[in-house]
Design brief:
Layout lengths: L2 E5 L2 E3 L7 E5 L16 H13 L4 E4 L12 H8 L2 E3 L1 E3 L8 H7 L3 H10 L11 E5 L7 H17 L3 E4 L6 H11 L7 E4 L7 H10 L2 E5 L7 H4 L1 H13 L3 E4 L18 H14 L1 H8 L1 H6 L1 E3 L2
Parallel strand pairs: 3-4, 4-5, 6-7, 7-8, 8-9, 9-10, 10-11
Antiparallel strand pairs: 1-2, 1-12
Length: 303
């Protein structure tokens, strides 16, 4: 059995990832964000260069099926920038898709996920390294349940980790009930995103206690608690014995948020957030969160 992280250039040993942005986007477009698409390959390259210059070595892109992943561009960018890239399959919330497109996936969603994890994404041949799905606001609608069941089926077929967008950070326990309870996924193969957007320490501890990974991703936008409560939340989880279950990411989703376009972008994670957390938690723990934890979260015994 070989444990590996599936990057766009092939499987690599987990220890090769180095400092990792565990949740971000190089390309992304959605009808919910008109005119703000991440669609410029040159800007994506510049952003990766800036991230590497700040000390970054790997980026996990959570952009799923149908939202402009540009999978064929990712190997070229990875080689040129010298940064490992992990690509996602999966499906976002229904509002991001045309209803006819969703209807065409009925009855074969898990099959699509498995194909993109094992054979590759379309003619690019790039294999995805995780499945990304999404919950709803304080609950799971029929679309979320459909996509999550398909994601769990794909996990059981391939071993792939499943990363979950929590809407405004909510419904974490509902997600775990479905994936790890009903669908019998091992918790350590589940990554919950955006926990920082709903800073409830009780929910965070309960989720961590399950054995899943908790991703604190994205600098503050409208939710001002995102930044100033993050160090306290991360410290509390670490002190409770869950430091090995924490991940950090940038979650750049619109063009104006890129550092090369004047936003915080990927380098913010290392330029600003890393020293802030190190002052609270110590350099050793923050280094583990940026290196050891993503290496474990995104590595699996591929089937």
């Amino acid at each position: 059995m070989v444990i590996a992280v599936r990057t766009v250039l092939g499987d690599v040993a987990p220890g090769e990832l180095g400092v990792t942005d565990a949740h971000d986007h190089l390309f992304f477009h959605s009808p919910q964000l008109p005119g703000r698409e991440l669609a410029d390959a040159a800007a994506a390259r510049a952003e990766l260069d800036a991230f590497r210059a700040a000390g970054g070595r790997s980026v996990v892109q959570w952009t799923p099926y149908g939202l402009g992943r540009r999978a064929a561009d990712l190997p070229l960018l990875s080689r040129a920038a010298g940064v490992h890239l992990v690509c996602a399959t999966g499906l976002h919330q229904a509002v991001h898709y045309d209803q006819e497109e969703l209807a065409a996936l009925r009855g074969r969603l898990a099959e699509v996920f498995v194909s993109e994890l094992t054979t590759g994404i379309g003619p690019s041949g790039v294999r995805a390294g995780l499945v990304k799905v999404a919950g709803g606001f304080h609950g799971l609608d029929a679309h979320a349940r459909w996509t999550m069941r398909a994601a769990a089926e794909a996990h059981h077929a391939t071993g792939a980790p499943v990363a979950v967008h929590l809407e405004l950070g909510t419904a974490a326990l509902d997600v775990l009930d479905l994936l790890c309870g009903e669908s019998e996924m091992p918790p350590h193969r589940v990554i919950l995103g955006h926990l920082n957007r709903f800073p409830d320490p009780v929910v965070q501890r309960e989720a961590a206690r399950s054995g899943c990974y908790l991703a604190f991703d994205g600098p503050s936008r409208t939710h001002h608690a995102t930044d100033w409560r993050m160090p306290e939340a991360v410290r509390a989880l670490a002190e409770a014995g869950f430091g090995h279950r924490l991940l950090l990411g940038g979650d750049t989703v619109v063009a104006g948020a890129r550092s090369v376009d004047g936003g915080p972008g990927m380098p913010y994670l290392l330029r600003r957030l890393r020293p802030r957390l190190a002052a609270e938690l110590g350099t050793e723990l923050v280094d583990r969160i940026l290196t050891d934890n993503p290496a474990a979260a995104f590595a699996t015994d591929w089937r």
